[in-house]
Amino acid sequence: MKNSLSGHYEQSEAIPTLRLLRDSAIAMTTFLSFTITNTDFLTFKSMTKRYSPISDFLKNKFGCKVFKVSLNAGLTCPNRDGTKGIGGCIYCKPETLMPLNYHYENNPPLSPFNKGGMMGGFLDDMKIREQLYDGIAYIRKRHKAEKFISYFQINTNTYAPVSALEKIYQEGIDHPDVVGIAVSTRPDCVDDNILDLLQNLSKEKFLWLELGLQSSHNKMLKLINRCHTVENFTDAVKRATERKIPVCSHVILGLPGETREDMLATARFLSNLGIWGIKLHHIHIHKGTKLEEMYKKGKFRPLGLDEYADLVVKFLQEIPEDIIIHRLCGRR
User: Interior CA angle at 285 toward 283 and 288, to 5°?
Assistant: First the structure.
């Protein structure tokens, strides 16, 4: 589909979108000053944009260029192993999240906590450490980064016993140039014990929690087979915020059947919730997913490039300027 933003069919369209958005009205020069209440009351000033990108936030906080290093903890997802559901979300293909420098052939046997057998690696401290060091070397060379955030991105990164998670996270920050850690997970997989662990870890390194919401409408969450509710998300954010853990919400724009007003309502929902950060994604169509079946049958049309860019502008206009924007669109 020409000018679509589907990851499988027109994945190259994402990169021009970033350029388009940077050059659009949302990037007009302005001067902002505000307080980030969930991150040690840091005063952050964006001098160039009407939104607050994570890159500027991190550079201001650490005084240099900071990049994330994606790590695979070898865990699965309760929406794949039968605990919550089977098959995952209709758009999900976990292997597409693997970092470019990651080598499949070096992955040893599955983690004992990976009951689903999808993209699992062995929970061995050397493997986590090797990923970390390899990723840092790769990103340092490619992007000239000076400091790094260990990013547990793939699958549900709190879906294991607390004792195992503590070992995973500690190995993930075992590098002198790692200044922080980001943990991506589902809102129904963060009980109080896990949040207490993250709170303790935040005393060692700057930490934020990423929770997949995708949409603030339960009807849509059911359609895309998320197997959690908006109420699960609200509860998780509340308990994390009580522990002063910054939360970044993942939102997908262009889900099947969602109207523009539905998506802007999600922006207002997150604003009212007092979320710290938002990561926007355009919908990806990956080969072998249920979403691909819908696309082939003519039941789904992804947003065009101009449609998406315009929608992102409108979305950003609905949220406070102090919400940290972690991404404007996906890159693959």
Answer: 145
Indicate the burial class of 38 (C-beta count within 10 angstroms; 0-12, 13-18, 19 or more): buried
Quickly tell me which residue has 């939102």 as its tokens.
Answer: 251
Angle at 235 between CA 233 and CA 240, to 5 degrees: 95
Residues 6+ apart with CB under 8 A from 272: none
b/e map 315-324, b = 16+ CB within 10 Å: bbeebeebbb
| Sign of the CA dihedral with 323 first, then 325, 326, and 332 last | positive
Euclidean distance between CA atoms 83 and 185, whole angstroms: 15
At 138-196, the pLDDT tens digits run: 999 999 999 999 999 989 999 999 999 999 999 999 999 999 999 999 999 999 999 99
Long-range CB pairs of 297-302 (<8 Å, 24+ gap) are 299/256, 300/256, 301/1, 301/4, 302/1, 302/4, 302/5, 302/6, 302/9, 302/254
Tokens of 160: 């294991």
- Between CA 215 and CA 218 the distance in angstroms is 8
Does residue 257 come out as left (phi exceeding 0), alpha (psi in the -120 to 50 range) or beta?
left
Put residue 3 in one of left, alpha, beta given phi > 0 → left and psi -120 to 50 → alpha.
left
SS3 192: helix
pTM of the prediction?
0.81
- Give Cβ neighbours of residue 105 (< 8 Å, ≥ 6 apart): none
Strands 42-44 and 34-36: antiparallel
User: How far is residue 249's CA from residue 261's CA, in Å, rounded to a whole number?
Assistant: 19
Q: Give the pair of three-digit tokens for residue 119.
A: 């993209």
Cross-strand partners of 178: 148
Partnered with residue 106 across adjacent β-strands are none
What pLDDT does residue 42 have? 37
Residue 171 tokens read as 């190995």
| DSSP annotation of 139 | H
Which H or E element spans position 150? Answer: strand 147-152
